[in-house]
Design brief:
Elements (H helix, E strand, L loop, with lengths): L2 E6 L4 H11 L6 E7 L5 H8 L4 E3 L8 H14 L4 E4 L8 H6 L4 E5 L11 H8 L3 E8 L9 E8 L6 H24 L3 E4 L2 E4 L5
Parallel strand pairs: 1-2, 1-4, 2-3, 4-5
Antiparallel strand pairs: 5-6, 6-7, 8-9
Helix pairs in contact: 1-6
Bound molecules: 5-O-phosphono-beta-D-ribofuranosylamine.
Length: 204
């Protein structure tokens, strides 16, 4: 069975959905480690409750990104981690890190990429006046929210939507979609070649 780590920075509602899916046998893989760059992230409490090993670090304690990334890579290697799931991890990983786990890092983003990359995707979509947005699960490359897209799900924007209300609906999609994608990836059913992603459907 494949082993994975989840990287978080904040609340960790996606982490919770992943833990729940694991409990219900909906992800055939082992969550071996939760990594946080924020020692007071609520996500760490969720990991603790689920009995998952945690590693948190404060980037300010390191003289360079390479330093703390080398530490993380060491910890991942020690646990034979096969792939990484970013779930609200607010730090850009360096090309050194990304290349070390090429095509093995997944991210979820609350917009239909390539529209609205970055930290304020929901706010930006609302401001722009588009009538639909959504959720994207993608591989992580060296850019910001720019890697090969695995799957997207659309959500219509309502006239009276606030950022909070829309985010809540997007979270519901995320919590359903991400565990499914993680399970598919763990089973080797998501193939990536350059920017082309192929999902092997049931029976194929
Ligand atoms: C999610 O909306 C995800 O799309 C984005 O960060 C948010 C994390 O939320 N990358 P949570 O910490 O999982 O609740």
């Amino acid at each position: 069975m494949k082993r994975f780590a989840v990287f978080v920075s904040g609340g960790g509602s996606n982490l919770e959905a992943i833990i729940e899916a694991l409990k219900n046998g909906k992800i055939e893989a082992e969550l071996s480690l939760v990594v946080s760059d924020n020692i007071s992230a609520y996500a760490l409490k969720r990991a603790e409750r689920a009995g998952v090993e945690r590693l948190s670090f404060n980037p300010k304690d390191y003289s360079s990104k390479e330093d703390y990334e080398a530490l993380i890579i060491g910890e991942l290697e020690r646990r034979d981690i096969d792939f990484i799931v970013l779930a609200g991890f607010m730090r850009i990983l360096s090309p050194y890190f990304v290349n070390n786990y090429k095509d093995k890092i997944l991210n979820i983003h609350p917009a239909l990429l390539p529209s609205f990359p970055g930290e304020h995707a929901v706010r930006d979509a609302l401001k722009s006046g588009v009538d639909k947005t959504g959720v994207t699960v993608h591989f992580v490359d060296e850019g910001v929210d720019s890697g090969p897209i695995i799957v997207q799900d659309i959500e219509l924007i309502k006239a009276d939507d606030t950022e909070e209300v829309l985010l809540e609906r997007l979270h519901k999609i995320e919590h359903r979609l991400y565990p499914e994608v993680i399970d598919f990836f763990a089973k080797g059913k998501i193939l990536v070649k350059g920017r082309d992603v192929k999902i092997i459907a049931k029976g194929e």
